[in-house]
């Protein structure tokens, strides 16, 4: 057995992700061509998406990472956002683009967006690979969305369950038997 066998279905293929990264790259190049944006990846999940996306952006940019948690090892958000690794780069006067793997409840990104505005960012926008709109608990939307996904437990391409499955090259639905207890 392999980790692939733990999935009920594939929602987004590796090829679809690659095509979407190219599409988003074209849009973001135009949006930020003269702004030297600061891209902020939210660890650990956004790492594969951000790594592939920045290769599509042949503009001047900087990037940094934040390690933020509201889930821990739980299946749902605790509602409390904890910053484990903050930015080393100042955001004051910068055009900031959060690069996120998935927006679920929206609590984490709403908190981070408000925080960056308080820190003096010129603008704060969001690009997310996945948007799980059915689970939204707060009023926040991404400026750019790769794919809207149903309220299923998704893993792969950075998304995990107990830190596993992040290395899958596609987005899949984890079989319920692996997380239901």
Automatic annotation (TrEMBL):
Its EC number is 2.4.2.8. It is found in: Cytoplasm. The keyword ATP-binding does not apply. It catalyses: IMP + diphosphate = hypoxanthine + 5-phospho-alpha-D-ribose 1-diphosphate; GMP + diphosphate = guanine + 5-phospho-alpha-D-ribose 1-diphosphate. Pathway: Purine metabolism; IMP biosynthesis via salvage pathway; IMP from hypoxanthine: step 1/1; Purine metabolism; GMP biosynthesis via salvage pathway; GMP from guanine: step 1/1. Its cofactor is Mg(2+). Keywords: Cytoplasm, Glycosyltransferase, Magnesium, Metal-binding, Nucleotide-binding, Purine salvage, Transferase. InterPro entries: HGPRT, Hxn_phspho_trans, PRTase-like, PRTase_dom. The keyword Magnesium applies. One of its GO terms (cellular component) is cytosol. SUPFAM superfamilies: PRTase-like. Transmembrane segments: none annotated. It comes from the Bacteria. One of its GO terms (molecular function) is nucleotide binding. One of its GO terms (biological process) is IMP salvage. Residues 17-161 form the Phosphoribosyltransferase domain. Purine salvage pathway enzyme that catalyzes the transfer of the ribosyl-5-phosphate group from 5-phospho-alpha-D-ribose 1-diphosphate (PRPP) to the N9 position of the 6-oxopurines hypoxanthine and guanine to form the corresponding ribonucleotides IMP (inosine 5'-monophosphate) and GMP (guanosine 5'-monophosphate), with the release of PPi. This is Hypoxanthine phosphoribosyltransferase. It comes from Alloiococcus otitis ATCC 51267.
């Amino acid at each position: 057995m392999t980790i692939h066998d733990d999935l009920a279905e594939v929602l987004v293929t590796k090829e679809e992700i690659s095509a979407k990264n190219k599409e988003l790259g074209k849009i973001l190049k135009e949006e930020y061509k003269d702004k030297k944006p600061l891209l902020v990846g939210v660890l650990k999940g956004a790492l594969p998406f951000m790594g592939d996306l920045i290769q599509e952006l042949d503009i001047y940019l900087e990037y940094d990472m934040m390690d933020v948690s509201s889930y821990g090892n739980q299946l749902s958000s605790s509602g409390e956002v904890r910053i484990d690794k903050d930015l080393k780069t100042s955001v004051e006067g910068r055009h900031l683009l959060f690069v996120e793997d998935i927006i679920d409840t929206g609590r984490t990104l709403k908190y981070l967006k408000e925080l960056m505005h308080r820190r003096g960012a010129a603008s704060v926008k969001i690009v997310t690979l996945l948007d799980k709109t059915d689970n939204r608990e707060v009023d926040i939307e991404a400026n750019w969305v790769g794919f809207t996904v149903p309220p299923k437990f998704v893993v792969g391409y950075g998304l995990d369950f107990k830190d596993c499955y992040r290395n899958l090259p596609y987005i899949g639905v984890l079989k319920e038997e692996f997380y239901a207890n």
